[in-house]
Amino acid sequence: MRVVIAVVGKPRDRHLAAAIDDYETRAARYWPLDVVEVREASARGVTGDVVMEREGERLVERLPSTGAVVLCDERGDGLTSPQFATMINAARDRASDIAFVIGGAFGLGASVRARATRSIQLAPWTLPHEMARLVLAEQLYRAGTIMRGEPYHK
């Protein structure tokens, strides 16, 4: 089992990049973690839908061929931290990969949505993809502490 974070773009803000790196490093203590960053598509002269599809195709190419694909989307299911931890632990018990996908500025296109097995929200509002990645990394770390009964999540 491995956890994959598939995201459009790299963090631009060095402070956010440092926080993301910190939480991804912490999360990797609990779950085998791979981070896949795909290049943002140019929005010059094309619609947002075209950008979403181009980025979506790049993401789909890099997703694991088996296992769960979970979209991080404000329209997804709201989970508590313990429910999120249980979802990841269930994938581990099945020895199944689980990939979390974060779209770019225009969101996630149909090709990625077609691969999804589930959609969850990291917040009930739209987050910039850098913030979404930070929230996801923190929750992956928190999930590890919950599953081991460590005190961080309290």
Structure description:
The chain has five helices and five strands; from the N terminus they run βαβαβαβαβα. The chain is an alpha/beta fold. The mean pLDDT is 93. The chain has a single domain (17-115, 127-149), classed as Alpha/beta knot (3-Layer(aba) Sandwich), CATH 3.40.1280.10. It is globular and about 50 Å long. Helix 3 (81-93) links the parallel strand 3 and strand 4 (98-102). It has a five-stranded parallel sheet with strand order 2-1-4-3-5. Helix content is 44%, strand content 21%. The longest helix has 20 residues, at 129-148. Helix 1 runs parallel beside helix 5. The protein has helices spanning 14-27, 48-62, 81-93, 110-115, 129-148; strands at residues 3-8, 33-38, 68-78, 98-102, 118-121. It starts with a strand and ends in a 6-residue tail after the last helix.
Describe the secondary structure blueprint for this structure:
Layout: E1 3-8, H1 14-27, E2 33-38, H2 48-62, E3 68-78, H3 81-93, E4 98-102, H4 110-115, E5 118-121, H5 129-148
Parallel strand pairs: 1-2, 1-4, 3-4, 3-5
Helix pairs in contact: 1-5, 3-5
Give a quick rundown of the structure.
The chain is α/β, with parallel strands linked by helices. The protein is built from 5 helices and 5 strands. The chain has one domain: Alpha/beta knot, CATH 3.40.1280.
* Rounded average pLDDT: 93
Strand order of the largest sheet: 2-1-4-3-5
Number of helices: 5
Classification by helices and strands: alpha/beta
Main CATH class: Alpha Beta
CATH topology: Alpha/beta knot
Largest sheet: 5 strands, parallel
Overall morphology: globular
DSSP strand count: 5
The portion of residues assigned to helices is 40-55%
Number of domains: 1
- The CATH superfamily title: SPOUT methyltransferase, trefoil knot domain
- Under the CATH scheme, which architecture would be assigned? 3-Layer(aba) Sandwich
In the predicted model, the low-confidence regions spanning at least 5 consecutive residues are none
Order of SSEs, N→C? EHEHEHEHEH
Q: Please state the CA-atom Rg, rounded to the nearest Å.
A: 15 Å
- How far is the first residue's CA from the last residue's CA? 27 Å
